[in-house]
Amino acid sequence: MEEKNLGKILIVDDNEDLLFAAKMLLKKHAREVFIEKDPRRIPFLINNNNYDVVLLDMNFTEDTTSGKEGFHWLRKIKEIDPKAVVILITAFGDVEMAVQALKEGATDFILKPWQNEKLIATLSAAIKLKESYNQVDKLSSRQKQLQADMKKPFSEIIGHSASMKNVFSIIEKVAKTDANILILGENGTGKELIARAIHEQSERHDEIFVGVDMGAITESLFESELFGHKKGAYTDAKEDRAGRFEVADNGTLFLDEIGNLSMPLQSKLLTVLQKREVTRIGSNKSLPIDIRLICATNMPIHDMILESTFRQDLLYRINTVEIFLPPLRDRQDDIPILAEHFLKVYASKYRKQFKGLKHSAHQLLQRYSWPGNIRELQHAIERAIIMAEGEELDSRDFFFLSAKPTNDKINTNSLNLDEVEKNMIQKAIDKNSGNISKAAKELGLTRASLYRRLEKYGL
């Protein structure tokens, strides 16, 4: 079977015999061939379809020799689609007209009656040009996305705890498939890192990974951001723009905080996922998409279905496999290695020399409940490094955590003097919002004495 590599072709000519002859010839080589004898339908056809090449007659019944009609419709096509590939055909061609046609934006120029081999060769060259246009558009959009991604810190997933080993096991099983993934977990647990890990281990790893924070997109910009828009589609649409679905074509699309979408936006998203095609705002053309979908949320999405705030059919569409990321408080074994990792990162960033964290610092970090999870730990290490003066971080460098809830409950019934002193120090620090000077004054201690006790008790 002969390969049909000429794509989708539109032929516009007022000669019906020529149209049918061309269609019979080209349907052996092209994926689809459309013919039209009335040039007035050109705007409708170009607005509602994607053609790889347009074969356009230069002379219609109203003017059979000058080529003015052909140039008029060429300009109209380029106005609608500046990247349209148009080949002009005429029986009255000359060099001067050919030069003008190229200046007007035509890709090539052929005379009729044409030689079949010459026509097919011309179309093949035009198809390659169209593919290069498409590739440039895709690369341009991807370049912008990659530049944004390069600004995101850290790409490693660090964890030796049993719960994380289970997560790694699931990733290994699902990554090579194209199954849709739903990642559940609190804010700051690293859901995007997991999504990127799945992409890197998938068959699409050489293609782009596109992340979208659904919680940061307003309802008015939802369609433009995800599906794209045409120039002039609305007031601020200064140029054609590909949406995130288009940019992610052949790669992975990560929709973070999907639980924040309103019901109307959920409906629009579901339609695109079902049809596997998008339509830019201001256009009637549907563009096929091929993506691997990964979603994430910190919301109780299964409860939301019972409350009718999340569509069950959309949940079925996005969660072929679910991955639950445990909070940091349930992965205490991972806190020391995460802390050491961030220590190296920020020590390098701020050009400081650190040997590591002291035992008292590790004790404090493991006792703290980390409501902000890994993101909070990351910020805590960064803040401590900026403010620290020694070569090792100790508990005093994390005084700002002492004012917050920890995993330990203060025991007010203990008669052990050390335990009572520890509890009183903790209360004083909590009461004074982590201000060491005020806490020391209230306890009747010097700052140095209080610091010694903080280190002693790992506070």
From TrEMBL:
GO molecular function: ATP binding; sequence-specific DNA binding
InterPro entries: AAA+_ATPase, AAA_lid_NorR, CheY-like_superfamily, Homeodomain-like_sf, HTH_Fis, P-loop_NTPase, Sig_transdc_resp-reg_receiver, Sigma_54_int
Gene3D superfamilies: 1.10.8.60, 3.40.50.2300, Homeodomain-like, P-loop containing nucleotide triphosphate hydrolases
Domain Sigma-54 factor interaction: 157-386
Record bears the keyword Glycosyltransferase: no
Gene Ontology annotations of biological process type: phosphorelay signal transduction system; regulation of DNA-templated transcription
UniProt xrefs under CDD domains: AAA (cd00009)
Sorted UniProt keywords: Activator, ATP-binding, DNA-binding, Nucleotide-binding, Phosphoprotein, Transcription, Transcription regulation
Domain Response regulatory: 8-127
Positions of modified residues (4-aspartylphosphate): 57
Domain of life: Bacteria
One of the Pfam families matching this protein, by short name: HTH_8
Protein name: Two component, sigma54 specific, transcriptional regulator, Fis family
Organism in which the protein naturally occurs: Cyclobacterium amurskyense
Biological classification of the source: Bacteria, Pseudomonadati, Bacteroidota, Cytophagia, Cytophagales
